[in-house]
Amino acid sequence: MKKLTLNAVLREDGKRDKTFKQIPGILYGPELKESKKVWVDFQKFVKIFEEAGESTLVDLAIKGEKDSYSVLIHDAQHHPVSGKYIHIDFYKVKAGKKIETSVEIEFIGEAPAVKEKGGILVKNLDEVEIRCLPKDLIGEIKVDLSVLKELDDSIYVGELDIPKEVELLSEPKTVVVSVAAPRSQDEIDQLNEKVEMDIDKVEGIKGKEEEEPKVEDKKEQK
To answer: Do 32 and 59 belong together in one domain?
Structure first.
């Protein structure tokens, strides 16, 4: 994987970026005496984050400093309404010390059990937890769906193909993806019937509530 570099500048306390083209962030880690508050370019960060995710090392180069920092994008906070990034945590990794992080799963290929037998592909996980040295980090784990040839076939966490230097922390017996048998017409009809019964039951309860006289009406009836 190519080297990813993100430029940053230190930000002073109390000052805000008025152009809204930068994102505030903080750099921290066990080897740093104190954290550093920085600005990073919005568009460049989005581009790098799409490629790196949270499991690929990025070189954070702070203007005015000789050496860059090898970091993980530990947390990218979003605005609750706009969805835009509003703050980034950069974690400075320590060389020679194992770290724990999550790695995304990338599904490739096509399941014969789906294409040829009408099965339903069920994806249970989109990431797994790993532990390894910073230099051994992987960007994603590819899962080949072509091995799912029969209905009810599954791929488990323990079957994932990962480098020997990487340790899986997720439960090995957890199902990553599987192929479920298609529902029969009888099952579909039963589900529809149950839904209709539930709706009738709710409407019946609602009707009774509407028919119940108010307190004022009860007084007048006495």
So the answer is: yes
